[in-house]
Every structure is written in C-alpha cells, then in structure tokens.
Amino acid sequence: MFAYCADPKALEGLAWLSCYLTSGTHLLFYASFGTVLFLLAVTAPIALLFGFGGALASRSHFAPLRWFGKIYTSMVRGVPDVVFFMFVPIALDQLFEYLRSRVSCDTSVPVRQGNDFIVCEAAKLPRAASPEWVHDSYGMFLAVLAFSIVFGAFAANVLYGAMNAVPRAQLETAEAYGMTRRQVNRRVLIPQMWSYAVPGLSNLWMILIKATPLLFLLGVEDIVYWARELGGSKTSAFTYPHPDWRLYYFLAILVFYLLMTWASERVLSRVRRRLSLGQATMGGETLRKAGA
Amino acid sequence: MTCAEAITNYALRSIGIGERLLPRTEFDLCTQFTLIGSGLIWNVYFGVFALLIGFFIANGLALAKASPNPLLRKPAEAFIFVFRGSPLFIQFFLAYQIFVLLPRSGIELFGITVATGWLTKAWAGALIVLILNTAAYSAEIFYGALQSVPKGDLEAADAYGLTGWHRFRRVVWPTMMRLAWPAYTNEAIFLFHATTLVFFSSFPAYAQQGDALYYGSFFADKTFNPFVAYPIVAGYFILLTLLLILLFGVVNRRLNRHLPGAARRIRYRPQLIR
C-alpha cells in the first residue's frame, strides 16, 4: 500500500507492521468485517418479516396455516440453531438443483444414485463456468437465507408472545366500535404489540450478532476464516513471515464483538425507553411518574 | 450389517469403545441412529458438567456483582460483560489458541510441574470455556433475581433476628433461586444446544470421537443427503430438551413447594431470552 513496502524483508519495527497490516490479504480481512455487517443488515429485516408472517400464521383461523405457523415457531425451541445452520443451506441447495433438474434435465435419470446427488450440468447451481463472484454470492445468499429462516422462527416466537400480551380489553374495545378482524389487527393489535416485543427483539438482535461467526461453518470467507488464515504461522517463504499469531487475531475479533454488543445495548435501551412512553406497563408508569 | 451389529459396534463409539473405523459404505438408518446417539454422550457430558460447576461460580459472581465493594464488583462485571458480549464460537477459538501456546512440557509452579497438554483436548478445554460461559449468563440471571428479592422478605428476616449467613441461606438465596429458576431452565437448554459447537471450533475430535452433530454432519457429507442425519440429530435434541424441562420442573416444584398451587404442574413456555 505504501511506497516503502516494496521490499518488506528489509523493513523492521513499526514500518514492517504498517506494511504488514495493509497487505492485500489484510484488506480482504478488513472487508470481511463488512461481510458480517452486511449479513446483519440484510438478515435482520428479512428475519423480522419471516417472524411477522410466522406469528400471524400461528394466530390464523385457517387450520393448515396455523399448523404451519406453530411448527415454524416451535422448531427452534428444542433443536440447536447450529443444526439448522448446517442443514438449511445444503437442503436448499439440493432443493433448487432438484427443481432445476426437473425442468432442464432428462427426468428419467434419478437424482439420488446410491450415496450421490447428481444433476446434469445444466441444472447445477451455480454453473461451473460462472465467474468466482457468482459462486461467492450464491454461498452468501444461502447463508442469508439460513440465518433469516432460523432467526425468523426466533422472531415469530417473540412477536407471537407480544401479540398475546396486548391487553384483551383494547381489542374488545376495537371490536365494540364495529371494526372487523382485519381492522382490529391493523389498527390496534400491531401498533400496540411493538412495545411488548421490543425487549424480546433486542435480545434477539444480540443473539444474532453473536451468531454471525457461524458464517464460517457455512463456508463463507468471513472474519473467522481470515483470522485463521492470516494468523497461522508463516515461514520465510512468505512475504511477511511470522509465528502463530492467531491468538491476536481472535482477540481483535473478540474486541469487535464486544464493541458491537456494547453499542447495541446502549441504542436499544434508548429505544425501549422511547417505546414504553405512555404504555400501561411498569416501564411506562415509571416514565410517567418521573415526568410528573 | 444388522441392527444389533450396528449397536454393538457403534453405541459407545464416541468414547472409544467398539469398532475403530467409522462406516464407509453402509449408512443404513440403524447405523445413523446408533452413531449419532453415541455422539450425544459428549453433549450430555459437556452440558451436565458445565451446568454443575457453572452453577456454583455463577452464584459467587452474582453475589460479587451485587456487592458494594468495587474490588469484588468490578471484576465480576467485567467477566460477565466479556463472556456475555462475545460469541461462544470466538471464545472457543480464543481459548484453544491460549491453551496451545502454553508450554508443552508443563508449567513450573512452586517446584511442581503442572501438565498443560490436556487443556488442548476437547474434554477439558472446551468444558472450561463452557463452564465460564454459562457461569456468566447464569450470574446475570441470578443477579437480576437477587435484585428482585422482595423487600418484605428481608424485613421479615430482620424481624426474626436472622443476620449474615443465616439470613442469606434461609431467606435470600431460596427466594433468589425461586425467581431465577424459569430463566435458568432456559439457560440450561441454551447451554445444551451450545455444546454442538465444540467440535466445529478448533478443538479436534480425537480419533473421530465427536458429538451428535459431528456424526450428523459426517453422515450428511458421506451420503450427500441432509434429510436423514440432521433430523435424527434434531430428534435427539428435542428429547434431551424435554428431559431437561422435566428435571428442572421437578426442582421448580420443590423450590415452590410452600406456595399454594405449586403442586400443580407448571406450564412451561420456553423463552428465547438469553
């Protein structure tokens, strides 16, 4: 990066370190922090949407939809999320390839042959001839989907609980005004639900932050991948030889996560405060008394 | 291979008893059920010991965090912040690196050489991380419960002339447990689920002796079929979770036995709060 970095072997001390920390692979390492933030930014809204759908589905009056909602919301309760992170990407991948193979392959050839899963070249996802970035973004796409499905189920739990926590009297009042079920949902239930949902959702956000290193298990080149890659001892064959420094790289990641959770906690406590204003809850009552 | 053979070969494979080689070509349901079930031994081992030891540390930490003395409070707060604020996955990696850096020949302590090699093994190293992790989470739960012990209880204890240790042991601590128990049940479930991470962080599975998810992903990799192995893992964990809820429910009833209606089965709604 710097002009004096042309011959790293001749450098020492701080100059060496400044060159080392700005090498090409390190820039990729720093970019992977962006990957984590990107995952958070994309997953959180999608998961919230899935959760919203799941919670509404499990309150539905249409039985099959309700069963689906109930199964979706309860699936994360007894099963470790790691199992889903391992299962969902490969299952989705096979599902997509299977569906494509039914369209563009010879359908008389079975997809499962013994211990193999084989689809013809045309149905492969991503295509072997595709450029590198297509492979990478397909992996990331599967990862985002896996995270969204799992955290959607978590969110559905929280939102379902919040919907049940809205005082029944408020809904009955709305019904007494002659509102239909849809109107009650849209005008009373959903606006009122958020203040009950915020503690659960903010807790969920913290869990989501702390689940992001699992991207490594999904084969995405994230911060854990680069920390292992860069930290491992490098012999003098490399431009920047050094002993095993993985400890320091993992310490840096630890600090990154501590900062993330610390900052989130501060923001979320302000949101919680803002949303409990004027609510018939303990938090709201405290705020009312403090104001009076 | 018949089912009985699979069971004799693989039922205790995860702790090194039985067939040395993992199945290569035959991946029938029986083999999968047996081997994944044998992996569950590790999950139970990690979960039970981490909970048991972590419980005592968590009590101490909660009391330290509630202490007016900053020399006790600050370290406890820092410990809880670090372990609750960072991902368990990273804690595993970091701990493994620290344990690896310890000198192989052992550390001289007061003239005695303390061996350190065992710390890099999963059974010890990962267990230590899990103990510290669950201690931090549980300490936060216990601390919250300690802060919500009703004032009336303390005044009643004062009126009876209970002070110091007696007051803590007979009034404060039981109430604290009572208040914390539902959340602590939840933490226990999370902990058992977290044990699946051990063999996916740096800790090596010695001689392919891994946990349930380790064997689950082994089968999924070999058969290219995630729709059998992972549901088996999930099924085992659902059973484990139900068992945990049952056991913790028994303790909960014992804690609340003096309250009217406590004999009734408590309807347990698992929370997803950690």
UniProtKB/TrEMBL annotation, chain A:
Pfam families: BPD_transp_1. The chain crosses the membrane at residues 27-50, 71-92, 138-160, 247-264. Keywords: Membrane, Transmembrane, Transmembrane helix, Transport. Residues 33-268 form the ABC transmembrane type-1 domain. It is found in: Cell membrane. GO terms for biological process: transmembrane transport. GO terms for cellular component: plasma membrane. Belongs to the binding-protein-dependent transport system permease family. This is Polar amino acid transport system permease protein.
UniProtKB/TrEMBL annotation, chain B:
Keywords: Cell inner membrane, Cell membrane, Membrane, Transmembrane, Transmembrane helix, Transport. The chain crosses the membrane at residues 44-66, 78-102, 188-207, 227-251. The lineage of its organism: Bacteria, Pseudomonadati, Pseudomonadota, Alphaproteobacteria, Rhodobacterales. This is Polar amino acid transport system permease protein. It is a multi-pass membrane protein. PROSITE patterns: ABC_TM1 (PS50928). Belongs to the binding-protein-dependent transport system permease family. InterPro entries: ArtM/GltK/GlnP/TcyL/YhdX-like (IPR043429), MetI-like (IPR000515), MetI-like_sf (IPR035906). Residues 40-251 form the ABC transmembrane type-1 domain. It comes from Paracoccus isoporae. It is found in: Cell membrane. GO terms for biological process: amino acid transport; transmembrane transport. GO terms for cellular component: plasma membrane.
